[in-house]
Amino acid sequence: MISAVLGIDAGTTAVKAVLYSLEGETLAAGHRAVTVVRTPDGGAESEIDLVWEAVVGAVRQALSQARSAQPDVVAIGVTGQGDGAWLVDAAGRPVRPAALWLDGRGADRVTAWQRDGRDAAVIAATGSASFPGTLPVLLDGFAETEPDVLARAAHHLNCKDVVRHRLTGEIATDPSEASRTYLDPSTLAYSDDMIDALGHRRFAHLLPPVRAPHDRAGVLTDAAATELGLRAGVPVAVGLVDSAACPVGLGALADQDGWVVLGTTATVAVNRVDRAAADSGIGILIPTGRGSQVLEALSSMVGTPNLDWVRDTLGLSDRGWNDLERLARTAPDGSGGVVYLPYGSPSGERAPFVDAAASASWVGMNVTTTPAQLLRSVFEGLAFSVAECLDLLDAGERVPVCGGGARSDLLCQLLADVSGRTIVRTADPEVGARGAATVALVAAGLAVDLEAAVRVFPADSVEFAPRPSPALVAARGVFARVRAALRPEWPALRALGRLTTDVDGSHPAAAPVDAARVDVAPGGAAPGDADADADRAGLERAGAGAAAAHLDDPAPDAPAPERTSA
């Protein structure tokens, strides 16, 4: 029998469970999909009980695969997606489905907060601006639309906190999660000033106690042990949100260490010694739980869904990504003059700029454009956007990367080429789970501190050195200028979409559209609208809406299993 540490990563679209030996060797891994339900009003939700079922399935799968090693789990760590509203009653039972970080129902509310000063109070307290999928915005909305639900709620527990509660029965969170609600990263306490400025004293009872991420939160209960196929009494760590667990898995603990996660979103972050040292002006701040240190992160929406979309759009869904990368490589740097703006999220963009009306487009096509050029342009567009974030945060010359998109040699090489940095890809595809397991070593007393735990769990890596490419330099410049030219029309394009598509997806006969008179999307600005232009300028200064990273996609071959609610 071999002693093992279990790392659980409960992401938005999948739960991963990985068993590691005490020397850091991966023994086995399990994976279960999680369904995201899209609602017609812009909501994005998951059933909390189904998330737990996915945890049980993933853990049991990992244990089954590791049967020959006879693993004895001696510590458990949990991480998961951040933000959202995960409301449970006093017994820990869900009072409604979890509203996720990518929920867009509060976009108008965020715009109103930016105008009336409430968002300024959020920024003053947390160092990060409001976003539709953050807890304060969601609670404010539910108070109007679902007051009966809020009356039954006793606790808000983020995704990993819900999972850990099912494991141990303990109510708690950590600074990385709480900073995305009402926590001041400087004091590591909930901000009374922010709560009162938002008029949210009525929600304060929902906020869980904040504990250090490497603390022992409790032990595995008899009931949870039976469900999972483990022995009771195993210590469980408090844990970190996925955007803070991933750098632990990468070994990026020191001040000024930077890293990138290429998942459903593309997150770029750098460790800062404290809040005062985070000076980009548009990043989000996430305490790491290591003294005053914070992550300064830019979490853009330009991740792997763009790759899934282009594969389907080009009719190549039956081909694996190795084949598609070979096809993309047949096109030259610069994609034959085709530029792709990768702003494909229905929620718009939030880094390195913020625009709720941002949209994707191809520019530079003609009747001779090939599928290879279109495909390669999407890879290049993603690399250009991530490189902008690296530059804005002044990231170092060596940048570790992880996430599903990092499995692409082409994307890693393009990112190295356009950023001028050496890209270092870890060999472990489940960096979040590795980070959770590393934290668990400390909680279980198997390592004296996190630095020692990281040395126990080293990860092999592959490096991509930058290559000179005049074509990519030129393409990056065109990319920026094309975006600037099209951006004034994004609100009108969003409005046009609302006029020509009803909520159930049918397409009624289109009425003539006067672009100067349509109601623009929240956060957008019609040309010549001075108030909206001022709002946009405020967004740029504050980085309003940058939400915590969603880092969980296992690979571009595993798109989010979503369905649309009727």
Give a verbal description of the structure.
With 566 residues, the chain is of the alpha+beta class. Helix content is 36%, strand content 18%. It is built from 19 helices and 23 strands. The strands form seven sheets. The protein has a seven-stranded mixed beta sheet, sandwiched between helices. A hairpin with a 3-residue loop joins β14 (258-262) and β15.
Helix content: 25-40%
Trace the largest sheet across and list its strands.
16-17-15-14-20-21-22
The number of strands is 23
Mean pLDDT: 87
Distance between the termini: 50 Å
Strand content: 15-25%
Shape: globular
Decide which structural class fits the backbone.
alpha+beta
- Over all CA atoms, what is the radius of gyration? 23 Å
Summarize the structure.
By secondary structure, the chain is of the alpha+beta class.
Pick out its properties.
single chain; disordered C terminus; globular; alpha+beta; seven-stranded mixed β-sheet; 566 residues
List the helices and strands and how they pair.
Elements: E1 2-10, E2 14-21, E3 26-33, E4 36-38, E5 44-46, H1 48-65, E6 71-80, E7 87-88, E8 98-99, H2 107-116, H3 118-126, H4 135-145, H5 147-152, E9 155-156, H6 159-168, H7 175-178, E10 183-184, E11 189-190, H8 192-197, E12 216-219, H9 222-228, E13 235-237, H10 242-250, E14 258-262, E15 266-272, E16 284-287, E17 294-300, H11 305-313, H12 321-329, E18 339-341, E19 361-363, H13 371-392, E20 398-402, H14 409-419, E21 422-426, H15 431-443, H16 450-456, E22 461-464, H17 470-486, H18 490-500, H19 530-542, E23 562-564
